[in-house]
């Protein structure tokens, strides 16, 4: 597995890098069959250190965890515990579904846009009905089953996930509802 360990405006020493590789390697090898790479970023926010970890699995799914603490090692250890919990749940769900994905997740390209928010008063009319596009990016849309999409959304900690339904070959959306349940949009 490839590791990319970096710090945002802080120096990451060799001892911390070795600690991250050893500890995260144990967790990933225990719960993930064939991880491809891991990206760990350390940063400092006020008086706390922040650790963000992303592990890409060979199935195409991604697990993410984020933690913060007053000490950098404690921030990583907390992040590592969250990652272990996510990977343990992921492995348990794979066993529950009795379906091992032998092929990697198929990806399809799509465009992702960030639109500027309106700063005008609610009473005033906007100058134009065309929104201002702040950023335009390439997005990857995964081909998953509904169960895998829900699992990927929870692993990523995202509120919504757009995916291509393997069963019907159409675009679908899963999202977390305000009542805590999962919603699924399946257009006809």
UniProtKB/TrEMBL annotation:
Q: Which protein are we looking at?
A: Ribosome hibernation promoting factor
Domain named Sigma 54 modulation/S30EA ribosomal protein C-terminal: which ranges? 130-183
Oligomeric state and partners? Interacts with 100S ribosomes. Associates exclusively with 100S ribosomes, which are dimers of 70S ribosomes.
Q: Name one Pfam family in it.
A: Ribosomal_S30AE
- Tell me which Gene Ontology terms the entry assigns under biological process: negative regulation of translational elongation
Q: Which GO terms describe its cellular component?
A: cytosolic small ribosomal subunit
Q: NCBIfam families, per this entry? A: yfiA
Name the source's superkingdom.
Bacteria
Question: Gene encoding this chain?
Answer: hpf
Q: Which organism is it from?
A: Thalassovita taeanensis
């Amino acid at each position: 597995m490839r590791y990319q360990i970096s710090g945002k405006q802080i120096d990451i020493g060799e001892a911390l890098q070795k600690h991250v590789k050893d500890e995260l390697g144990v967790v990933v090898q225990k719960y993930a069959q064939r991880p491809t790479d891991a990206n760990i970023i350390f940063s400092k926010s006020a008086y706390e250190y922040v650790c963000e970890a992303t592990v890409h699995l060979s199935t195409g799914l991604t697990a993410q965890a984020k933690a913060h603490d007053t000490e950098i090692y404690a921030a990583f250890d907390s992040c590592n515990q969250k990652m272990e919990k996510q990977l343990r749940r992921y492995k348990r769900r794979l066993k529950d579904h009795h379906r091992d994905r032998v092929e990697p997740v198929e990806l399809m390209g799509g465009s992702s846009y960030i639109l500027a928010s309106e700063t005008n008063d609610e009473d005033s009319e906007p100058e134009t009905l065309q929104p201002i596009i702040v950023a335009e990016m390439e997005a990857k849309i995964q081909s998953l089953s509904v169960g895998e999409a829900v699992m990927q959304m929870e692993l990523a900690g995202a509120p919504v996930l757009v995916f291509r339904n393997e069963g019907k070959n159409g675009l679908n959306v899963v999202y977390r509802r305000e009542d805590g349940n999962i919603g699924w949009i399946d257009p006809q």
